[in-house]
Structures are given as structure tokens and as C-alpha cells.
Design a protein that fits this description.
This protein has helices spanning about 1-20, 25-30, 30-45, 60-80, 85-110, 115-140, 150-170, 175-180, 180-210. With about 220 residues, it is mainly α. The protein has a single domain (about 1-210), classed as Rhopdopsin 7-helix transmembrane proteins (Up-down Bundle). The termini are far apart. Keywords: Membrane, Transmembrane, Transmembrane helix.
Length: about 220
């Protein structure tokens, strides 16, 4: 059931993003449309087992690539919301370092045909720090006359925080996949399903409440 709801929300988020595209005057929101299209294609291929390779039809190589792609996209999205250039440069450097390690982990440490859980945990850990930093800066600029619930960035980052925390805790316990595979599979479906439902629900709200900024802005 959670998987069906998740798929419905992903499709809904894509079409709402498509219909709201003209109202997006920030590059980072416009990039959601091709991102969501790629994610939907991945979900379709994964559901139909199009990525299976080898005798076991393993699709872990595709999972590694999808999560790395997700990491780069959301890193850019969050970093582009920071106002100070030093902040952007610092987290851009961290992002590139983690991505470089991810490539090393995929190619030389754990291998592309195995789930690169070490790199994935680090990726989600860094993303959690980025989102928390965003909220810290947001609270510093908080104006009582401004309703946070009307800010798209608030909704997107709220969904991301729940999603990243869930994925971080899940992949941090990846050893269960070897000791108790059935339990791990059940946990995966529940955690992944709930995390995606929260994320895409928040994305839909963000797209719906988005209002174009009339004044010129230097931020992406």
C-alpha cells in the first residue's frame, strides 16, 4: 500500500511541478522538473526489473547511481539557498569531496555491484547537516510577520529532513541485510515508503504555495 501511495505522490509531484513551472523564477526549482522525470523513469525501470544484471538480476549498481545523483541534486538545491558566498563555497567543497569518495567506494572499495552503504551513509549525513544549517539560518532571519507555512523552501527542507533522517538510519543498519535479510526487506519497504510519502507530500505543498518573487534576486 505504501508503495502505491508513494508512486501516486511521485507522479502527482511531477505533474504539479510541470503545471507550476512558469511560476518558478528560481533555477533550483525549475530543475525539479527534469529531476522528477528521471526519478520516475528510475522507479519504472526498478519496478519492472529492467536494471537487473547477472545471474541474481541485481540492480544495486542502479541504486548506487540513483542515490549519488539524488545526493548531487539536493546538495545543489540546499546550497543554492544559502545567502553567504563563504557558506556556499564551504559546503560545495564538502559536497565534491563526498562525491569523490562515493566514486572511490563504488569503483574500488565496495564495488558497483554491491550496495555502497558506507558512501550512502556519509552522503545522507552531510545532507542532514546541510538541511539543519538551512533551518538555523532561516530561524536567524525569521520575521514574525512572515508565515513560514507560505514559504516553499520551508516545506521542501522539512520533507528533506524527514527523508534524509529515515534513509540515514536505514542504511546505517545495513548489516541486518546479511544477518536477517527478511526483516531487513520489511524494514526497507516501510521506512522507504513512509519517508517518500513525507517527502513528496511536502514537495507538492511547496509547488502549490510557490509565489514568484517580483523583485530581482541574486540567489538561484
Amino acid at each position: 500500500m505504501a508503495r502505491i501511495i508513494n508512486l501516486v505522490l511521485e507522479v502527482a509531484a511531477f505533474f504539479i511541478c510541470l503545471f507550476s513551472y512558469k511560476r518558478f523564477n528560481l533555477t533550483r526549482y525549475k530543475l525539479f522538473l527534469p529531476y522528477l522525470a528521471i526519478i520516475l523513469l528510475y522507479e519504472y525501470g526498478s519496478s519492472n526489473k529492467l536494471f537487473g544484471i547477472g545471474p541474481n538480476k541485481s540492480n544495486l549498481w542502479a541504486v548506487n547511481i540513483e542515490i549519488a545523483f539524488e545526493y548531487l541534486f539536493y546538495s545543489f538545491f540546499i546550497i543554492s539557498a544559502y545567502r553567504e558566498k563563504k557558506e556556499k563555497k564551504r559546503f560545495t567543497f564538502i559536497t565534491l569531496c563526498v562525491f569523490t569518495f562515493t566514486l572511490i567506494d563504488i569503483c574500488f572499495i565496495q564495488g558497483i555491484m554491491r550496495l555502497c552503504s558506507i558512501a550512502i551513509v556519509i552522503q545522507y549525513g552531510v545532507l542532514i547537516i546541510m538541511v539543519c544549517r538551512f533551518f538555523y539560518l532561516l530561524m536567524g532571519e525569521f520575521d514574525k510577520e512572515t508565515a513560514l507555512l507560505h514559504k516553499p523552501d520551508f516545506w521542501v527542507n522539512t520533507g528533506l529532513l524527514f527523508f534524509f533522517l529515515s534513509e540515514f538510519l536505514f542504511f546505517a543498519s545495513f548489516n541486518l541485510a546479511y544477518s536477517r535479510p527478511l526483516l531487513f526487506r520489511e524494514i526497507f519497504h516501510v521506512v522507504s515508503g513512509v519517508a517518500n510519502i513525507i517527502l513528496y507530500s511536502c514537495l507538492i505543498i511547496a509547488f502549490l504555495c510557490f509565489r514568484p518573487i517580483k523583485t530581482m534576486s541574486s540567489s538561484l
